[in-house]
Specification:
Length: 151
């Protein structure tokens, strides 16, 4: 199992920051590596909402299906993805801090089969790239939130 934590300060109100971090329909306009997000369930975004995210990774496009497992605006959202023999859990929390918001992402990658367990040991470098990509995504959304806040 691999765990990581990333905190990003955003100079925008908590409600606005949460709104942008959960705006799946427009996420591709904020994060360059995301090609598109397709909502797979009807209705408003909430726990149980499923979506398919397509992004570039290297020179290729990859799609993953994700599910929102917890949704508590404007404080937190949790996502789950099952892919390549592993379970990816992402818990985002949003806390007001002065005039801005601290966004903390706690991620956990858990292998779910023997091959994935072996690969986790061998793929430490890939994990670093994955975490760096998560950090970059947070920076892009933070920038968009800050730009909206100043308008």
């Amino acid at each position: 199992m691999a765990s990581f934590e990333i905190t990003q300060h955003v100079e925008a109100a908590q409600e606005r920051t949460f709104e942008l971090f959960t705006s799946f329909e427009t996420m591709h306009t904020m994060i360059p590596d995301i090609v598109r997000i397709e909502l797979l369930t009807d209705g408003p975004v909430c726990a149980g909402t499923r979506f398919k995210e397509t992004r570039t990774w290297g020179k290729r496009e990859h799609s993953e299906e994700m599910e929102i497992t917890a949704f508590d605006p404007p404080s937190s959202i949790s996502l789950l993805c099952q892919s390549c023999g592993a379970r990816y859990a992402f818990d985002y929390s949003f806390a007001a801090n002065g005039t801005g918001t601290d966004v903390t992402l706690r991620g956990q990658i858990t292998p779910t089969n023997f091959v994935a367990k072996i690969m986790m040991v061998l793929m430490k470098m890939m994990q670093k790239k994955f975490i760096a990509a998560c950090r970059k995504d947070m920076e892009h959304v933070a920038q968009a939130a800050e730009e909206c806040e100043t308008q």
